[in-house]
Amino acid sequence: MARVLGVSRSGYYKYLNRHKDRSVAPELTNFLQEKWLKSRKNYGFKRLFQEVKKSNLPYGARKVRKAMKHCKISGKQRKQFRPLTTNSKHGGRIAPDLVQRKFHPNEQNRIGCLMLHSFGLRLVGVISV
To answer: Among the four 51, 56, 64, 129, which has the fewest Cβ within 10 Å?
Structure first.
Protein backbone atom coordinates (compact mmCIF):
# COMPACT_ATOMS: atom_id res chain seq x y z
CA MET A 1 0.00 0.00 0.00
CA ALA A 2 2.83 2.41 0.87
CA ARG A 3 4.45 1.81 -2.53
CA VAL A 4 1.18 2.63 -4.35
CA LEU A 5 0.82 5.89 -2.42
CA GLY A 6 4.45 6.79 -3.00
CA VAL A 7 5.39 7.12 0.67
CA SER A 8 7.72 5.21 2.96
CA ARG A 9 6.35 2.27 4.91
CA SER A 10 7.25 3.84 8.27
CA GLY A 11 5.59 7.13 7.28
CA TYR A 12 2.42 5.31 6.21
CA TYR A 13 2.10 3.42 9.51
CA LYS A 14 2.97 6.53 11.50
CA TYR A 15 0.08 8.26 9.74
CA LEU A 16 -2.29 5.37 10.49
CA ASN A 17 -1.40 5.26 14.19
CA ARG A 18 -1.41 9.01 14.69
CA HIS A 19 -3.97 10.30 17.16
CA LYS A 20 -6.67 12.46 15.76
CA ASP A 21 -6.50 16.12 16.76
CA ARG A 22 -9.05 16.63 19.47
CA SER A 23 -11.00 19.84 19.31
CA VAL A 24 -10.83 22.37 22.11
CA ALA A 25 -13.57 21.97 24.73
CA PRO A 26 -16.25 24.67 24.29
CA GLU A 27 -16.73 24.84 28.07
CA LEU A 28 -13.08 25.83 28.48
CA THR A 29 -13.07 28.35 25.65
CA ASN A 30 -16.20 30.06 26.97
CA PHE A 31 -14.72 30.19 30.47
CA LEU A 32 -11.41 31.63 29.23
CA GLN A 33 -13.07 34.25 27.05
CA GLU A 34 -15.35 35.32 29.90
CA LYS A 35 -12.46 35.73 32.37
CA TRP A 36 -10.27 37.43 29.75
CA LEU A 37 -12.95 39.96 28.89
CA LYS A 38 -13.66 40.60 32.59
CA SER A 39 -9.99 41.46 33.02
CA ARG A 40 -10.30 43.95 30.13
CA LYS A 41 -8.06 41.71 27.99
CA ASN A 42 -5.19 41.97 30.48
CA TYR A 43 -4.91 38.39 31.75
CA GLY A 44 -2.35 36.13 30.15
CA PHE A 45 -1.70 32.42 30.52
CA LYS A 46 -0.58 32.45 34.16
CA ARG A 47 -3.62 34.27 35.52
CA LEU A 48 -6.11 32.45 33.31
CA PHE A 49 -4.63 29.10 34.33
CA GLN A 50 -4.97 30.13 37.99
CA GLU A 51 -8.63 30.93 37.34
CA VAL A 52 -9.12 27.49 35.77
CA LYS A 53 -7.55 25.86 38.84
CA LYS A 54 -9.71 27.91 41.23
CA SER A 55 -12.89 26.90 39.44
CA ASN A 56 -11.87 23.19 39.56
CA LEU A 57 -12.19 22.65 35.82
CA PRO A 58 -10.46 19.40 34.75
CA TYR A 59 -7.99 20.98 32.31
CA GLY A 60 -4.22 21.13 32.44
CA ALA A 61 -1.75 23.74 31.29
CA ARG A 62 -1.41 22.38 27.75
CA LYS A 63 -5.16 22.37 27.17
CA VAL A 64 -5.44 25.92 28.48
CA ARG A 65 -2.61 27.10 26.20
CA LYS A 66 -4.18 25.34 23.23
CA ALA A 67 -7.59 26.87 23.96
CA MET A 68 -6.03 30.32 24.32
CA LYS A 69 -4.26 29.91 20.99
CA HIS A 70 -7.49 28.70 19.38
CA CYS A 71 -9.41 31.74 20.70
CA LYS A 72 -6.51 34.14 19.98
CA ILE A 73 -6.32 35.21 23.62
CA SER A 74 -3.14 36.83 24.87
CA GLY A 75 -2.31 39.08 27.79
CA LYS A 76 -1.07 42.63 27.50
CA GLN A 77 2.66 43.17 27.68
CA ARG A 78 4.01 45.62 30.22
CA LYS A 79 5.57 48.72 28.76
CA GLN A 80 9.26 49.39 29.25
CA PHE A 81 10.04 51.53 32.30
CA ARG A 82 11.16 55.04 31.43
CA PRO A 83 12.27 57.17 34.36
CA LEU A 84 10.61 60.51 34.91
CA THR A 85 12.74 63.56 35.39
CA THR A 86 14.05 64.50 38.82
CA ASN A 87 14.36 68.18 37.92
CA SER A 88 10.84 69.47 37.33
CA LYS A 89 11.92 72.89 36.03
CA HIS A 90 12.49 71.68 32.47
CA GLY A 91 10.35 69.96 29.87
CA GLY A 92 12.64 66.98 29.22
CA ARG A 93 11.95 63.43 30.34
CA ILE A 94 15.34 62.53 31.84
CA ALA A 95 17.22 64.57 34.41
CA PRO A 96 20.09 66.59 32.94
CA ASP A 97 23.74 65.85 33.69
CA LEU A 98 24.51 68.50 36.30
CA VAL A 99 28.15 67.44 36.73
CA GLN A 100 28.96 67.43 32.99
CA ARG A 101 32.27 65.64 33.69
CA LYS A 102 33.54 68.63 35.71
CA PHE A 103 34.82 66.78 38.76
CA HIS A 104 36.61 69.81 40.26
CA PRO A 105 33.89 72.01 41.82
CA ASN A 106 34.33 75.62 42.89
CA GLU A 107 32.23 75.38 46.07
CA GLN A 108 32.46 72.97 48.98
CA ASN A 109 29.80 70.19 49.31
CA ARG A 110 28.51 70.98 45.83
CA ILE A 111 29.08 67.58 44.18
CA GLY A 112 29.15 64.12 45.79
CA CYS A 113 30.21 60.74 44.51
CA LEU A 114 29.51 57.25 45.78
CA MET A 115 31.73 54.36 44.66
CA LEU A 116 30.50 50.78 44.74
CA HIS A 117 32.53 47.62 44.25
CA SER A 118 31.22 46.00 41.06
CA PHE A 119 31.54 42.40 42.27
CA GLY A 120 29.83 42.47 45.64
CA LEU A 121 28.11 45.85 45.41
CA ARG A 122 29.87 46.93 48.59
CA LEU A 123 30.54 50.55 49.39
CA VAL A 124 34.16 51.41 48.58
CA GLY A 125 34.18 55.11 49.33
CA VAL A 126 32.23 58.34 49.53
CA ILE A 127 33.52 61.62 48.19
CA SER A 128 31.76 64.85 49.01
CA VAL A 129 33.45 67.85 47.52
So the answer is: 56
